[in-house]
Every structure is written in C-alpha cells, then in structure tokens.
Amino acid sequence: MIKKLLLVFLAGLSSIATSYAQDPFASGIVASPATLPTSSTGTIAATLGNGSSTPIPQANNATYTINLPPNIGVTGSSISPAAPNFTTTISPYSSTTGTTVTLVSNQGPVPGVANYTFTLNVIGLRPTNGTPAPLSINAASDPPVLTNNPNNDNANSNISVTGALPVSLISFNAKAQGDRTVALEWVTSFEANNKGFIIERSKDLTSFERVGEVSEVAPNSSGRKSYSIIDKTPFSGTSYYRLSQTDLNGKTTALRVASVILRDGAYGVFPNPVIGDQAFRLSLDEPETATIKFFNIDGRALPLQKAGVESGNLLLKSVGKLPTGVYVMTVEERGQTRKHRVVIE
Asked: Could you give the CA distance from residue 222 to residue 160 in angstroms, rounded to a whole number?
C-alpha cells in the first residue's frame, strides 16, 4: 500500500514538473536588406516560439516584444505558420522612440516546440547617418513560467537606412476639372520632420513657378494622409506640376512630377467624313509621339501616311484610295487609348 502511494506521489510530481516545463524563446531578428534606402521597403523577420515540448498555457500570456528604431516605419505584418492564438499590437510611430510591436498568446496556448517566423513589412524613413540602428526582440510571460530559460529570451540585430527623403509618397496626381481648373492631390504613408509641401507648375520641365503650398501638416506621421490644392489659373495645353517637400531644417526635396492637359477643342478627326484620298487632321495631345492605328470594318490594319503637324494637329493621309465605308482609328498616347469612327466617302 505504501509503495502504491509513493508511486502515485511521484507521478504527481512528474505531472507538476511537466505542466511547468514551458519556455518562451526569441532566437533571432534579421533585417532584409540590412541597408535600406529612405522610402524603400524591406522586412524584419523575427523567430520566436516555445522551447519546450509542453504548451505554454493561455493564462501565462506568452509575450514577445519587438522594438524598432525611428529610422523605419511598419506598414504590415504576417506570421508563419498561422497563429490565431496571438494578438498582435503595433504601436503608433514615434519620431523619438520608433515602434513597439507585441505578440501576446491571449487567444490560446503556445504549442510545445512551436516555432514561428513573424515578419514585419517596413519602410525606410530617416537615415541612420553611418551608425546602424538597433533591432531587438524579447520573450517573456505574465505570470512568468517557472521553467523559463533566460538564455534564449533576447535577440538583437541592426539596420542601416540611407538617403534623405523624410516623406513616403504613395501617389501624386494632377486632374483637369470641368471649370478649367486643375486639382492636385497626393497621399503619403509616412512623414518625418515634415514642415510642408510646395506645388509648382511648368510648361517645359525646366522653368517652374509656384502655385501654392500646404503647411498644415503633422511633422511626424505613420498613417495614410491625403492632401489637395487647386490651381485656379492653369496653363492651356500640357502642364507639368512638381510636388516638393520642405523639412523642419529648411531643406526642400522634389518628390514627384505629374502632368495634365487642358484642351481648347475636342479630340477627333476633321473633316469627317473624309473625301476620297484627301488629307485629314487628327486632333490629339502628342502629335509627335502618339501611336496611330487604322482599321477597316473587318479589323484589318491599314497603313496611314503622316503628312505633318499643323497647330497641334496631326495631318494624315491614306496610302492608296480607300473604298467608301466606315473605318476605326485608335490613338495611343500618355497611357490612354481613344477610338474614333472615320467615314470615307
């Protein structure tokens, strides 16, 4: 009887020891690429999990904390294999402390010998100026497990950021409006040390004049922000708009150029109908570089002769006499394709 009780007691001790044989670990954190230009994207991959064969109970809240420097910002995250037991929290970006990312197993236990790769999508925001910035990850639990191995709780690395662009620009567009104004719109995803934006316009991409500026900005932002300004007195024809950014130190950096066209007349073929083999005019934006194609009603391509340019219109003439009928002309320019119905009499 005593021997049986002793065996039961020893089995209980073994069960207790096994139930507490958990070990949250963090074994590595790696930046790819290790050197990231500003406004370029990369990844930070961290390896984490449970170093024991016994699951870490949900009640112990295994916690993995990643600290990133203010030189980079976070745009997204993923984990492999899938881990519905974790809740991921990404702190707002701070220009002084950077970003803190935490994973907590408050939705379920961490399985025994679990090994995860947690990947952060990042963007370069601020140069490190020759001294790499630190990356770190820490593994812990709350309340602490009794069998944690402190030798695998921390991992460290670094990243270098080159360049000088303090703003990550998603888009910049110039759009002609019905009242003959031009709407300038742009979207940013990150801003650091930003004082404001300047919009300029040009006819030749050489000489620019100021349209306006936007100074109501947050110097530092890690979220998507949209801006707009209206040019009420735009040029006729083709115009180029340049978006520049000024930082808190007064340095101005050109970010992107967009173009727009304000036309005085409509696109099309004149005269239409075209009489026999006479020359006709095609009204378009870029007569020197546009791609022109001409088809009969059956879709067969036909040759056209370019006879010159007159007042911004392209002069065209058919090669040989065409039968009377309906034809289709396509115009490809500036990333757009237009179709015109042409009648030959």
From this structure: 19
pLDDT digits (tens, 9 = 90+) for 50-77: 999 999 999 999 999 999 998 888 888 9
Contact by Cβ (8 Å): 321, 313:
no
Domains of the chain, start order? 19-162 (2.60.40.1510), 167-262 (2.60.40.10), 268-344 (2.60.40.1220)
Q: 140-162 pLDDT, tens per residue?
A: 999 999 889 999 999 999 999 98
User: Exposed (0-12), middle (13-18) or buried (19+): which is 186, by Cβ within 10 Å?
Assistant: buried
Which sign does the torsion angle of CA 140, 146, 147, 151 carry?
A: positive
Of the CA atoms within 13 Å of residue 264, those in its CB half-sphere come to 6
- Beta strands (DSSP E) in 97-181 are 99-104, 115-124, 133-140, 154-162, 167-176
The pLDDT tens digits of the residues spanning 78-127 come to: 999 999 999 998 887 776 788 999 999 999 999 999 999 999 999 887 78
